[in-house]
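User: Here's a chain of 149 residues. Predict its fold as tokens.
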Amino acid sequence: MSLESLERTAQQFEALPRDGRIGALIALADRLNALSPSPSETWPVRDIRQDLECQDTVGLYARNDGERVILAAEVGQEVTTLTRALTALFVEHLSGETRAHILNLDAGIVPRVVGDALMRQRSNGAYYTLRRLKEAVEQLEVSSAPVTV
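Assistant: Prediction complete.
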């Protein structure tokens, strides 16, 4: 997908009432399994860990494809729906973008998708995925050999 499609998705979320937004986040979370890394592919960056902000393991994968960055993710069973949804959103829309576009993505996109009510309850977790994704992409630039965190 693209940054333009991410912007359109953010606009769609902004237009939803709270209950509709929650339903859309659940639908996004359900798409995460399709974004798992293929075992047959080489992933120079494999950032798999459980941070304090998260209830279970989150694995982010990155590799170069020419000027573009390809992303994948997998999460443990106990990861919250919000983290699953945002992980799916960012992997789906940012995979295939340039490193610069990913690193320069404004974190303001997160509250636009999540909404004020959920941001008040889960503000740390809401930014977690984007921060981790940017860290993985930063590692990719300097990494020529596989890196496992």
